[in-house]
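Protein-arginine kinase
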Amino acid sequence: MTSNTNRFTQHALSDWMKSEGPDSDIVISTRIRIARNIQSYPFPMLSTNPQSHEVFEKVSSIMGNEELGTISNFSLLSLDELDELEKRVLVEKHLISPALANESRNGAVILSDNESISIMVNEEDHLRIQCLCPGFQINEAWDLASQIDDLFETQLDYAFDEKRGYLTSCPTNVGTGIRASVMIHLPALVLTQQINRILSAITQVGLAVRGLYGEGSEALGNLFQISNQITLGQSEQEIIDNLYGVVRQIIEHERAAREKLQLETRTKLLDRVSRSFGIMSYAAIMDSKEAAQRLSDVRLGIDLGIIKNVPLQVMNELMVMTQPGFLQQYAGEKLSAEERDIRRAQLIREKFTSE
């Protein structure tokens, strides 16, 4: 196990994002997150500094496990050794949570080489095992997360109750401790004004809809994070299957809405996509909210074959590169809001003209 912060903060695009998964024209990524705590230790919010340090030592000692080494090579990053900008970049890449970046005691993250596996230590729970896959691969992500969880459970005495299941800091995670989610791009449902009806139906079947960075974040750029809310009273596979079925229906609704746009308002759609492409190719200043919307328009244009000279991988990269933390990391200095808007526009121009 090695510690090398730069390799995780210098590049916007994680290796796992460089390949396209199933339904990647609509589903950006799939995530499984498992919350676990260690028996006989207080939850992180109540633990003392020595107690949280013991948890850190227990978890980090497992990283030499030979079986874990067959999954990937891992690096351990201690949050105490990262500056605020480095932590912000890791949040923007979805490798750590805002809670771990801002409030943790003896916090750390264990990352696989391709960044598809992220194990947070001393966040809201002692362990948060996260697995990410490109496109719609919920069962594949669950299989990987379950494999890692099983391995850790052979080395740690998890806090578990026969009636309640796995015990977690937040009551909403008690039971399986699993959060399954997909990041999904729904521009056509927004443009055809069907999105509110769809989102309302989603919440009625026990799923949550959030923005790009989870709970409390705004759904910018027509990107929505859909996840399970119920963790108690259902098996892991039931949770996975329920989310899979609902997301499959959403994908079909989005595809139908895209067909409707092309048939009924193709000229307006062409104009919208082309305008956003033109603005992003030449703009001298752009804030993050406008960038998110323009990127959504261009991404839709790529998916529909309207724009042919920009790879989808570039759009995935710009999703991260246009965020405030990465812009400053890229510039090598702290930037004011206006300076970030100028850099953002410059970076987008460079990416578009280099293709």
